[in-house]
């Protein structure tokens, strides 16, 4: 877990439109290892989320968005920490997920 995490969020609504924007900075972390030769530091990263919504009516709203919009990945493991190539990204020292961009569409209907 990073010792530093900073979150900047904007949630704005104007008439039928709304925007959600978030930047999260995940500070650097060290690989959890007992061997001096395998020490590794993973750099800090910024992950951006964005969604845009439109309310068709008071009861129906559509939203399109992306988590990790800029497709940011953690630093890759050095060869010594890959366990014969099975773990490209650290399984012990996670700042954030390693699945990359996630895009979505949402329909919200209120009764």
Automatic annotation (TrEMBL):
Top-level taxonomic group: Bacteria
Assigned keywords, A-Z: Cell outer membrane, Membrane, Receptor
Cell compartments where the protein resides: Cell outer membrane
Membrane is among the record's keywords: yes
InterPro entries cross-referenced by the UniProt entry: Beta-barrel_TonB_sf
Keyword Membrane: yes
Alphabetical list of PANTHER family matching this protein: PTHR47234, SECRETIN_TONB SHORT N-TERMINAL DOMAIN-CONTAINING PROTEIN
Protein name: Outer membrane receptor protein involved in Fe transport
């Amino acid at each position: 877990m990073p010792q530093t995490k900073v979150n900047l969020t904007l949630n704005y609504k104007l008439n039928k439109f709304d925007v959600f924007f978030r930047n999260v900075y995940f500070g650097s972390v060290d690989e959890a290892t007992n061997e001096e030769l395998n020490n590794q530091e993973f750099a800090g990263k910024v992950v951006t989320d964005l969604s845009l919504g439109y309310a068709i009516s008071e009861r129906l709203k559509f939203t399109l968005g992306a988590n990790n919009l800029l497709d940011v990945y953690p630093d890759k493991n050095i060869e010594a920490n890959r366990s014969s190539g099975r773990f490209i990204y650290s399984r012990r020292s996670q700042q954030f997920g390693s699945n990359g961009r996630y895009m979505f569409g949402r329909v919200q209907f209120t009764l």
